[in-house]
Amino acid sequence: MSLLRNNLSCHTDPKMVFFQPSGIDFQYSNIQLSEERAGIVNLVPNKTTQYMSKASRRQFLANAGKAAAVTAITPFLASAPAAAAANADGPFIHHVYFWLKNATSKDDKAKLVAGLRKLSSAKTIAQFYIGQPAPTNRDVIDRSYAVSWLLFFKNKEDQDAYQTDPIHLKFIEECSSLWSRVVVYDSIDV
């Protein structure tokens, strides 16, 4: 990738970022940054280094400051696609909370749990857990739901396939009359 901004030319490859002021003739070849030394600017003189005039030196220092500013954001720009790619292939957690229409009905709760047990046979589910509120009481704890359904998938694609799986669609058809509210929290690696 190459860009030109504020008279500063930036050239990157996967391992190295090079900055060089544009249109200025001086005898330092590049300002060089490596991933191992991100944020530290190294001047790399060429083999025939000569002294610069004061005007060239001032211009060089001004452009070196611009390079340092660009350097501050470069790690974020370079790592964002890698982080997105890593998350796309990592585990996908799907946590569903159900509130029953008849909150005190043991029969409705048993029907919902039985439906979730059938749903657990969907082939893209790596692991599952059916739970209910724990007997803990702190201000930050919400114990108002009836049943929780925690699912682990190998990746987002498996979770996407689960959403259209006939077993999942049948569960919704048979059990949606039992709940008044559903809240879903999906998570991926940080």
Structure in words:
The protein is an alpha+beta fold and 190 residues long. The chain has helices at 54-89, 106-119, 156-163, 166-175; strands at 2-5, 8-12, 16-21, 28-34, 42-45, 92-100, 125-131, 147-153, 179-188. The strands form two sheets. A five-stranded antiparallel sheet has the order 1-2-3-4-5, covered by helices on one side. Strands 7-8-6-9 form a four-stranded antiparallel sheet. α2 (106-119) packs antiparallel against α4. The chain is extended, with a radius of gyration of 29 Å. Residues 1-52, 69-74 and 76-80 have low confidence and may be disordered.
Explain the layout of strands and helices.
Elements: E1 2-5, E2 8-12, E3 16-21, E4 28-34, E5 42-45, H1 54-89, E6 92-100, H2 106-119, E7 125-131, E8 147-153, H3 156-163, H4 166-175, E9 179-188
Antiparallel strand pairs: 1-2, 2-3, 3-4, 4-5, 6-8, 6-9, 7-8
Helix pairs in contact: 2-4
Features of the shown structure:
190 residues, alpha+beta, 5-stranded antiparallel sheet, 4-stranded antiparallel sheet, 4 helices, 9 strands, disordered N terminus
- The count of helical stretches stands at 4
**Span from first to last CA?**
27 Å
Spans with pLDDT under 50 lasting ≥5 residues? 1-52, 69-74, 76-80
**Overall outline:** extended
Q: Please state roughly what percent of the residues sit in beta strands, choosing from under 5%, 5-15%, 15-25%, 25-35%, 35-45% or over 45%.
A: 25-35%
* Succession of helices and strands: EEEEEHEHEEHHE
